[in-house]
Every structure is written in structure tokens, then in C-alpha cells.
Predict the 3D structure of the following.
Amino acid sequence: MKKVILGLLALLSVQMASAEVYHLNLDQSVAIARNKSVNMLNLEQDKMIMEYDMKATLAGLKTHIDMNFNLPQYTETIRSFEDTAGISYYPVRQLGYNANLSINQPLITDGRIYLSGGLSNTDDIYNSKRLMNMNTRIGFEQPLDAFYAYNNIRSSMRQAKLNYEQTQKQLKRQDLDLVYSVMSSFYNLLQVQKRRELSETNLQRQEEAYLLAKNKFAAGLIKEVDVLQMEVDLAEAQNSFEMSLINQQSLENSFKELIGLNISDSVVLSMDMLDYKPVIVDPDKAIELAMKNRLEIREQEIQLELRQMSIKRQRAQGLPSASLTAYFEKSGVSELGNDGEITTSFQNVTKDYLVRPQNYGVGLTVSVPILDFGENKARVRAAEANLQKARNQQEQVRRNIESEVLNLVSEVNTSLKRLQLLEKNIEVAEKSFEITRARYADGDIDSQALALERDRLNNAYTTHLSAYITYQLKLADLMRNTFYDFVNDVEIE
């Protein structure tokens, strides 16, 4: 049993030794969250995914080289042969080897240039023959409707760039949302810590008041009921302090989880005397910045462009299409018995490749839609309706953003005025409490009047802290809704 207890104590001491104590302000908390929080780590992965997707899309428009091998391919089957004498069947046993190289280069005009070459060898076992073939082809394909209707290559590149831009703005917004979440959690925990400090201060004052009341009762200056009331107030202060400790621990764990710290670590938040910079926000400037930077605005613009591309693509399906193809090919063949050397077959096929006349071809394919009973026209109209729907949605989004930003600006300015007013209230409440405590010590007032004045002072501290936090959070909310830091007067990059 002793060994078990000693083992548990050793494990507990190791855990306590590994825990760290962090003294953090807001900037340090955000910095830790950027490096350690799960949300931020996922955000970094999203950035990498976005970059790789863009790279893959652009790489798809570059030269591709592929090589295929069959090493070997064995076939044993029965085939049929039909002539004037009837149908006859014969066995087939073949062993083949081949290698093919293809080089494909997409063109910005939606066509392609390709080069292919191959070498194959087939051993016909039943007929005791070796067949070898060598060929090289260079070709060109160009859909002519890409010049007047719809170009898939250009559209794909444009869509990839739009998706990249949209993802960048989404990641920027997610980063600002994370900063806002850290700020909100930081200030909530700070508020609880300050309330715990106020509860502790209140407990100390209540203990002093209780001792003073006991001394005054012993001297016969006050009634016993006043001492009992002070004892009740002391118990309430003790209970309030213990509850504040529990609330602080709960919020502290949530905060550590958010920014990526271990639960066993300790966090002590600090603010420089609740300093702040008064900021008066111009509504017109805030709206202009929101319209310029908000993700929703650009998303709607991108959707409009994508819908226009969809209309163009659908309309192109109802237009005449044409495709131009051309190729130049060289080939060589060799046929020997199975008893011949493969090097001999290769020499023969090479000689034939060099002397055999080249093959070539040029073609123009035209496709003209004649009748579809209005199918394509209806699809075009549906795409146009989707475009108009996107325009309506864009206007609604602009109105919502304008209303949202105006409300935020009003709340920022209002919260600043309230914060400045409550600062004066604290000065008045502190002076009033000192006067009241002196009067109580002189016996001019009873304990109830002192308790009432103490509650007023605590309420002044609490409401001032709440107003400070509200002001800071409103500024942060305005920053993530306009992508502009009004405190430092800089645009968020």
C-alpha cells in the first residue's frame, strides 16, 4: 500500500513539475493561439490545401509526359475466321511486349499539341512469327468554337484564380474570427479574475469591519445585532469569494483549451490598468471599408462571374462547333520467324521506319445543332434566372452589411461614452467609500450604511470592467467586419 501511495505521489509531483505558469496579456494570448490552438493549426492546413490546389490547377495546363509498359502480356484464346467455305476457328497464343511514350501540351486556345511514340513486339507462338512495330506521331487538335463560343482552358484558369481569391479571404476572415474568439475568452476570464480580486478585497474589508464591530461591541458602543449582521455579511463575502474561485477555474480551463495550452498549466492574465485608446469611428468610412473588404461582397461578385460563365457555356452548346485536327506519323514494321534474334527484328524495323513513307492526315469536323425542341434555350434561360437571382442576393448582402456596420459603429461610440462616464463614477465611489468608512469608525453611521456603500463601490468596479470589455470587443467585432484596425488606423492584410 505504501508503494502505491508513493507511486501516486511521484506521478503527481512529475505532473506538477511539468506544468507551466503563463503570465499573459492580450497580445501574448493571441500569439500563443496562432501557434498552438487547434483552430489555428487547421487554418494553416487550409492555407496549404488552397496553395496546393491552385498549384495543381495551373500544373494541369502544362506539359504532361506519360510512359506505359506491358512487360509482358500473354494471350491464349480462340478466334474465328469466316470465308466462302464457312466459319472456322483457330487457336491463338501470343506473347507481347510494348512501350509507349506520350507528351501532351495543352494550348491556351483550348487545343493541344501531342507527340507519341511506341515500340511493340508480338511473338505469335502458333505461327512461329515475331512481329515488331515502331511508330512516332506528332499531332495537333484545335476546337474552333473556342474562339467564338466557350474556351474551357481559359475558364478553368479563371475559375481557379477566383477560388484561390475566395479562399484567401475566407482564411483571413477565419483568422480574424479566431482573434475575436481569443479576445472574447480573454476578457471573460479577465472579468472573472477581476471579480475574484474584488471578492477577495471585499472579504478583507468585511473581516476588518467585523473585527472593528466586535471591538466596538466589547466597548459597549454598538448593539449585539450589529455584530451579528457583520458576521452574516462576512459569511456572504466568504461564500462569494469561493464561488468566484470556482468560476475562474472553469473559464480558465476553457481559455487554455482555446489557445492550445495544457489543462495542467496555470494562466494569470494582466492588463495595463485597463488602458484604452478612445476611438471615434466615422460611419461612412466604416461602410466604405466593409464594402471594399468584406468576404461576402467579393463572394457575390465571384458568384456573378461564375454564373455568367455558366450562361456562356450553356449558350455555346446550342451553337455550331468545329474541330481541326492534323497529324504527321512515321512507322516501321518487321516480320520474322520466332527463331530469329530480337536484335535482328529491331534492326529491320528501324530500317523500315527510316525508308517507309510518312503518314499524315488533316481533318475538319463540323457539328451543327438542327432541332432540340428548345432544350438548350430553356437551359440558357434558367442560367440567366440564376444570374438575376445572384444579383438580387448581392444587393441584399450589401444592405445587410451596411446595416450591420452602422449598428456596430453606433455601439462602439456608445460604449466609449459609457466607459468614460463610468471612470468618473469610480472616482466618486472610492471617495464616498473612504468617507463612509471614516464615519463608521467614528460611530456616526451603522454597519448597514457601510455595507451599502461597499456594495456601491464594488458595483462601480464591476460595471466599469464590463464597460471596458464591451468597448474592446465592439472594436474587435468592427475590425473583423471591416478588415480595418481603427485603433491603430491600419488595414488588415
